[in-house]
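#struct-help
A.M.: can someone run this one for me? Single chain, 431 residues.
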Amino acid sequence: MGLRGGLERAVRAFRERKTAVRPTGRGWQALFFGVLSIVVAYLIGTTQIYQLGYALLALPVAAFALGFWLSRGLSHARRIASGENPTAGRETHVELFVSNASPSTSPRVEVVDRLPKPRYFELPPVEGRGTRKIRVPMSFAKRGLYELGPAEVMTTDPFGLLRFVRRFPGTTEVVVYPEAYDLPGFPLRGSGADAGTRGSFSQRGDEFSGLREYRRGDERRHIHWKSVARTGELVVKEFAADAPRRYSVVVDLQRAGLRVPEAEVEDAISAGASVLSHLAAEGLPSRLLLSGRGRGATDFGSGEGTYWAAMRLLATAAADGDESPGEFLDGVPRGELGEGVILILRSLGDGLVRSVSKLRASGLSVVVVALAAHTYRGGGGGARGGREAAFAADLRRLEIAGATTRIVRRDGGVRALGSGGRGVTTNRGAV
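D.P.: on it. Structure tokens below:
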């Protein structure tokens, strides 16, 4: 019963740990010559050859017991390096950990982990109760959700006859954020903020200036409960004029045609990320609205949590919306837009001009970041010149409607949006 129970426990351990055992080249040789020796001994009836065959076949059994015992405590884990937020096109680091829970030192360790493609690593033996760490540089070409893993940890017995392959099926989800650029020339500035440092956010002034109706995103601690009790409607206290203005960043994700240029969509997403980063650095509360099919949105906020929630939405956004920018804006209640709107647009038109005029008439400031879509698509000569003239005319109509404008072109990209260099234009309207 003792032997049988031990075998059953070993089988259960292998199943739970998803362990496979494979003979090495030397192991196959030992098995082959062991079987060959027994066959030859059977044919000629020599006792010494029988003994040799049994000895050769006993070696893999001993290797199995010893190899399993020495590697039984090994485990594997991974994580993105502390303090790093993976961003498309930039290097980040993942840390791999191989730990040994048993008191005995393990054999030399080999690790294959999918990051997200298979990567191979060799480690020295792991001491008992010890851990070895590997810091691996890696980069992601595109934003989005990635899955790292599963992994395999491999060891070999001291005789070099058997390879133990232990599978760790656990995976790690990694959010790769779009690239955000500094926008020193962007026409929005905070009041009382230490500009340039994300996480330094301005606070509302202490001087009370009046009451107004409650809007989505207002802090509950500013509700004027006496007025609520008297009128039955939510009313909030309004503070001094130096209180930070709230901005809605709207990203146009309308599906335009059968094949949308990837570079155009990626620049729109990156422009949205850059604007959000700029607002956060200036201490201006903001929210994100996506016009895609899922109509993703965040609440107003000026903290790190709000910022990264918006960045996660941008990481997985797709140009799959059915509404034009004007239709989307008309469907959003004015009270949910704050005091200003930044529009990241891939298409312009009459409906958009009307929507911007309505926003300005409601007292909201409007900044338009317009992607020159014709620079991302095919065609040239007179056709491109005509599209450029139409784009300039649409942009001018937005400026007349009261919007401050910026342009992103394919050759300059989003980086030019903050540099004030080629591909950037602005009207003289105040924000």
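A.M.: thanks! Residues 204-243 form one domain.
D.P.: also worth noting: The longest helix spans residues 47-71.
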